[in-house]
Amino acid sequence: MDETATRPGRRPGQNKTKAKIIVAAEALFAKEGFDHTTIRAIARQAGVDPALVLHYFDSKQELFIAVMTPPQRMPHKIAKELANGNPETLGLRMATLFVSMLDAKSTNHIVVNVLKAAIRIPGAAVLLKRIMVRPILKAFKESALDHAELRATLAQSQLVGMVMTRYILKVEPLASLPPKELIAYIAPTLQRYLTGDLNVS
Amino acid sequence: MDETATRPGRRPGQNKTKAKIIVAAEALFAKEGFDHTTIRAIARQAGVDPALVLHYFDSKQELFIAVMTPPQRMPHKIAKELANGNPETLGLRMATLFVSMLDAKSTNHIVVNVLKAAIRIPGAAVLLKRIMVRPILKAFKESALDHAELRATLAQSQLVGMVMTRYILKVEPLASLPPKELIAYIAPTLQRYLTGDLNVS
Predict the structure, then answer these.
(1) pLDDT bracket for residue A71 (50, 70, 90)
(2) What would the pLDDT profile of A16-70 be if each residue is shown by its tens digit?
(3) Could you tell me if B141 and A96 are in contact, meaning their C-beta atoms sit under 8 angstroms apart?
């Protein structure tokens, strides 16, 4: 809903202001997490009035979803890497991709913050699907595999559990496993969910 | 640490008061979740002064862990059901047990609340291990299986992901699958993690 388009006071600088708010919010959400970031702190960082933040975004939730959504680099990159290659190694490629993404400091916080937020913000579950389910569905588009949505969400369940156990709850020995070893354990699970015989009744 | 034992003002009624606080906290945590339960509300429900709650428990976190810990019925029940039976159906029994527990209203909130709390309270990750990892280790005790801790945490990763995807994020079609179907999908994963050849290097 773009209310700004119908407002009489619309000025050319508005897109710039909105962008400034998103950049500030992105930095704060990444650094402080969803819970500890306030509209007030985002406004301060962006150098605008808190009321202006709420003029563009109805709530912190809506701003969070907007922040996590626009780049689209991550889902695109994931979809590309999953789509290119042998379907028989899809599980291995998916496990490798997500473990690398989570072991890298620059991308870890994105997945971890989205997951943590998704637990309390119903709207943010969609972001998780965007990273995990949609790239799989895209990769499936070319193949004739049945039950694509079911397969993708089963794979998401193992990925989410891996992220939770290793990177959020940090349960040992899983938390300290060498990436290669962890990938070897979960890849067959993903492969079975994605392309195996599920005997769907 | 039982400070009360050395306090001069100890009265016989103290255990009763502590029990009243735990009962009140249990009810409120279950109903409102960890975040929305306050020490003040627990004190009100228990009919005691908030300062008395903090006399027994240093923090809301500590009280939460105490509340989730004492019954021990759930971990015992899980350990018993996992230990009795053919090792070749361990994955199936574990999947059936957890899906039933989570589909039942009376036990769903315990697992869901522990999981939600574990994300923000480092101490609560231990509660999740108590429900998921320890019963497996107990079931393994009799068998000669190697890498028991690794196997148990791998199984926990699939269980946690299943709880998150189906019961917390409610991602479709996983959220609405008939229990029997969901069990059939995840049981082979658990079985492989628990007793399969993991090729540990």
Answers:
(1) low
(2) 888 899 889 988 887 887 778 899 999 999 999 999 999 998 888 888 877 766 4
(3) no
Sort out which chain A residues have CB atoms less than 8 A from B188's CB and list them: 192
Residues on B contacting A at a C-beta cutoff of 8 Å: 35, 116, 118-120, 125, 128-129, 133, 149-150, 153-154, 156-162, 164-166, 168-174, 177, 181, 184-186, 188-189, 192-193, 198-201
Q: What's the CATH superfamily of B8-63?
A: Homeodomain-like (1.10.10.60)
Q: State whether A171 and B125 contact (CB < 8 Å).
A: yes
CATH superfamily of domain region A12-68: Homeodomain-like (1.10.10.60)
Q: How many Å lie between the alpha carbon of A149 and the closest alpha carbon of chain B? A: 7
ipTM of the complex: 0.77
Which among B116, B153, B177 has the least Cβ separation from residue A165? B153
CATH topology of domain A73-195: Tetracycline Repressor; domain 2 (1.10.357)
What type of residue is B164?
Answer: M
pLDDT in the model for residue B127: 77
Q: Which residues of B touch A198 (CB under 8 A)?
A: 184-185
Q: What confidence tens digit (pLDDT) does each residue in B61-109 have?
A: 888 877 766 456 777 788 888 888 888 899 999 999 999 989 988 788 7
More confident residue, A179 or B17: A179
Structure-token pair, residue B156: 């926990």
Residue A169, min C-alpha distance to chain B (Å): 6
Contact of A126 with A161, CB cutoff 8 Å:
no
Distance from C-alpha of A116 to C-alpha of A125, rounded to nearest angstrom? 10
- B90 CA: distance to closest CA in chain A (Å): 17
Residue range A4-25: mean pLDDT, rounded: 69
Q: Residue A129: which of B116, B156, B171 has the nearest Cβ?
A: B171
- Residue-range domain boundaries for chain B: 8-63, 73-195
Residue B200 contacts residue B150 (beta carbons within 8 Å): yes
Calpha distance B54→B39 (Å, rounded): 8
Q: Which residue has the higher pLDDT, A113 or B51?
A: B51
Cα–Cα dist B108/B110, whole Å: 6
Let me know: does A154 contact A148? Beta carbons within 8 Å. Answer: no
